[in-house]
Design a protein that fits this description.
single chain, 410 residues, alpha/beta, Nonspecific Lipid-transfer Protein, Chain A, Rossmann fold, 2 domains, seven-stranded mixed sheet, 17 helices
């Protein structure tokens, strides 16, 4: 049996995958199951099977991007769902893991990539976020929230879930009018504007993206709140001042493990004595890992999804409290499904902006990320920190009460 056949036999047990090889041979793997997709693919070159066996994520993604793997029945989301649902993180099959040699080489390279000094961090951010706002307008909500939404109901709209996310985070910050808030990794400014509008706080948002900063500043001007909601193009490491609250949503994934200590030390330095911080980040459900080659090469160079244990090593010994931790398991999967569907609906527009390989790359990124939250080992963590043990109420009741109060006003 060829290695690729052995790989498919191990990886696909339920549901069916039909594979047509470059020589015209067709083989089927798995057993029909109404709860699993039925997908057919075709390889157009003889090199694809070997590339997939050596490194499944990179081999499949590049073959799909460049037309060397064609999906003839089903679609990309169904293909990746079939693969990840057959190999759920909690089942630990290991069938989709890269080979030992590839894993060792990637591990060394990623450690170097993730050191993320200030200059490299700026370049990494520009790689992903400065590729044109027009793309993001095609799949994000109107507020351009490019992070995990919060679904009170899995069937609610993306717009409602992103609004609920902002309320969920705001309630944990225990805000009062007149407070000074720092938003690290402010994106296009939506969270900063929301916090000011809801609580009357002054907000400084910081980012390393040229396109984001222009949009964020313009939004504050258009809303007539530029005196209270300000934005700067600056690395968090270079910031000075004191803030009553710090919020960071979807930025920690770009920090890199070698800089975790620096990040938490700086945040503690910037917090007032009674200060509170809310950190929202993608995380690994298990232990430390390695960023897959597709993501590191095409999507988030220098990026890394931390295990909870790695986050803990960043703040331990700095003498401020982790006062709350919440794990959001499926929410990002639901979010990414919305983004994927909107991207597919705008296929022609995206190809006109870029080209077809870029479109294929982007939907692979969204579909792969979606299935990693629905069936893989990715979750979202929301961690709350305080310098002072008396800075917050002693029970979590205030969070729910405040969240309901905010929702009632909308």
């Amino acid at each position: 049996m060829a290695l690729i056949d052995l790989f498919f036999t191990r990886a696909f047990k339920r549901g069916t995958l039909s594979v047509t090889y470059a020589d015209g041979t067709t083989k089927s793997f798995g057993t029909a199951d109404p709860d699993y997709p039925d997908v057919a693919i075709r390889f157009t070159t003889k090199s694809v099977p070997g590339q997939i066996v050596r490194n499944p994520a990179l081999g499949v993604s590049e073959a799909f991007m460049h037309g060397r793997m064609v999906i003839e029945r089903g679609d990309l989301m169904q293909l990746l769902t079939l693969a990840t649902k057959n190999n759920r993180w909690e089942d630990a099959t290991g069938a989709l893991d890269p080979g030992l040699v590839a894993k060792a080489v990637v591990g060394v390279k990623r450690k170097l990539d993730q050191f993320n000094r200030a200059r490299a961090a700026r370049a990494n951010v520009k790689h992903h976020y400065d590729i044109g706002n027009a793309l993001y307008d095609l799949f994000l909500d109107a507020d351009r929230q490019y992070s995990c939404a919060y679904f009170v109901d899995p069937d609610e709209s993306l717009e409602q879930a992103q609004l609920d996310k902002k309320a969920h985070i705001a309630a944990k910050l225990a805000l009062k009018p007149g407070m000074r808030v720092l938003d690290i990794g402010c994106g296009w400014g939506g969270m900063a504007l929301y916090l000011h509008q809801t609580y009357g706080v002054d907000v400084l948002g910081i980012t390393l993206s040229d396109e984001q900063i222009v949009t964020a500043k313009q939004r504050a001007l258009d809303a007539g709140v530029a005196d209270h909601v300000k934005f700067e193009l600056i690395d968090y490491r270079h910031l000075t001042g004191t803030f009553d609250r710090i919020v960071s949503v979807g930025m920690f994934e770009h920090v890199g493990p070698p800089q975790y200590r620096t990040f938490f030390r700086k945040c503690r330095e910037l917090l007032s004595d009674d200060g509170v911080m809310l950190l929202h980040t993608i995380g690994r459900a298990g232990g430390a890992g390695v960023t897959d080659e597709f993501t590191a090469k095409y999507i988030f160079p220098g990026g890394y999804i931390p295990a909870l244990s790695e986050i803990a090593k960043g703040y331990e010994g700095l003498r401020y409290y982790m006062t709350d931790l919440e794990v959001l398991r499926l929410h990002y999967g639901y979010t990414l499904r919305h983004w994927y569907d909107r991207t597919v609906a705008n296929r022609d527009k995206i190809i006109a902006l870029y080209d077809e390989p870029f479109y294929n790359m982007w939907i692979f990124y969204l579909a792969g990320s979606c299935t990693s939250f629905l069936y893989g080992g990715m979750v979202n963590y929301q961690l709350q920190f305080a310098r002072n043990r008396d800075a917050l109420p002693i029970t979590r009741d205030y969070m729910g009460d405040e969240e309901r109060r905010i929702a009632a006003k909308v």
